[in-house]
Design a protein that fits this description.
This is Riboflavin biosynthesis protein. This protein is an alpha/beta fold. It is built from ten helices and twelve strands. The strands form two sheets. Strands 1-4-3-2-5-6 form a six-stranded parallel beta sheet, with helices on both faces. The protein has a six-stranded antiparallel β-barrel with strand order 7-8-11-10-9-12. α1 (28-44) packs antiparallel against α7 and α7 packs antiparallel against α8 (176-183). It binds flavin mononucleotide (FMN) and adenosine-5'-diphosphate.
């Protein structure tokens, strides 16, 4: 799959079959839509193109609302490549971009750079200043600009929207197994290893403290998880605590910490990818460090069983 970040450099895509959207999560509902686009492109001898925006439009339009992204761009790109889509066009979303009239958007963003053969979108897709553009407006301009419009069945669109919301809520609530089932894979989060209180190694369980790479990504709810940790493309089992560490601290900041099995290495500054396999238990306040350590032994056994 080709990744394009400059819409002025899009020459050479033959008979572009274009769909548009954020596709956050790339879950089963999104895959059903993207597979229609891929199949359609094959049938008419065109190339499949997904036009997406970065940052997420809501981040630019409503900067104070929490975003709760499921797949940051890098991960989304990998997952979309796996669906057979041939081109992804990442359009920078800015306030100026959002101010384009719907007519200018059609001409300047779709028609001039892409010369689409077909645009495949749903009834709920809106674009242009004040979201005034939609499939009806695209249909009206079809004869002028010479593209076809194919509507994605409303049922597919509604299913996809419902799934995104359910997945986001499940992750937030710590219902990881449920989220994983809906995603069709393990939920992953990437982060950099930062310094903590240096207590972990004294307990016999050093824990790499994780600062998420994308601050807008959904962090699973407070609790203890069995995880798979990818370091330099090698996978390790591990156990992760997301919480306030009430036994040893009084902070209100949620900390993400992972103890990785079968590794002893200085990881500060490295980027880890954490795959959440299952939730093991709630966070607890223990009356002594000995009790916490005993629980960590039990967690390790439970995590190893959960990871298989
Ligand atoms: C698998 C796992 C489970 C944990 N469970 C708890 C818990 O239930 N309650 C708690 O107060 N701290 C818990 N912790 C965190 C410890 O309190 C400890 O502070 C931390 O691992 C060390 O922090 P540091 O990396 O900043 O030195 C857990 C840590 C891990 C890795
Ligand atoms: N098996 C392991 N799991 C996690 N971190 C490890 C492991 N082995 C070594 N480390 C290193 O130890 C650090 C965690 O030790 P810890 O005493 O908890 O310090 P901190 O409070 O800074 O996290 C990690 O950031 C990493 O560099």
């Amino acid at each position: 799959m080709a990744v394009h970040t400059d819409i002025s450099q899009l020459k050479g895509i033959s008979r572009p079959i274009v769909t548009i959207g954020t596709f956050d999560g790339v879950h089963a509902g999104h895959k059903a839509i993207l597979s229609k686009v891929v199949t359609y492109a094959r049938e008419v001898g065109g190339e499949s193109v997904l036009l997406t925006f970065e940052p997420h439009p809501r981040k630019v339009l409503f900067p104070t609302q929490p975003l709760g992204i499921i797949t940051p761009l890098q991960r989304k790109t990998e997952l979309i490549a796996a669906t057979g889509i041939q081109h992804i066009v990442v359009v920078p979303f800015t306030k100026e971009f959002a101010a384009l009239s719907a007519e200018d958007y059609i001409k300047n963003v779709l028609v001039d750079p892409l010369r689409p053969h077909t645009i495949i979108i749903g009834y709920d897709h809106h674009f242009g200043h004040d979201r005034t553009g939609n499939i009806d407006l695209l249909r009206r301009y079809a004869p002028t600009y010479g593209y076809n419009i194919v509507e994605i069945p409303a049922q597919l669109i509604d299913q996809a929207t419902v799934s995104s919301t359910k997945i986001r809520k499940a992750i937030l609530a710590g219902h990881i197994a449920e989220a994983n089932t809906m995603l069709g894979r393990e939920y992953t989060l990437e982060g950099t290893v930062v310094h903590g209180k240096k207590l972990g190694r004294e307990l016999g369980y050093p824990t790499a403290n994780i600062a998420p790479l994308n601050a807008d990504q959904v962090v699973p709810g407070i609790g203890i998880y069995a995880v798979r940790v990818r370091i330099d493309n090698v996978l390790y089992g591990g156990m992760m605590s997301i919480g306030l560490n009430p036994t040893v601290s009084h902070t209100q900041d949620v900390k993400l910490e992972v103890n990785i099995f079968d590794i002893d290495a200085d990881l500060y500054g490295q980027v880890l990818e954490i795959g959440f396999a299952d939730r093991l238990r709630n966070e607890q306040k223990f009356s002594s460090l000995e009790e916490l350590i005993a629980q960590l032994h039990a967690d390790k056994a439970a995590a190893m069983a959960a990871l298989g």
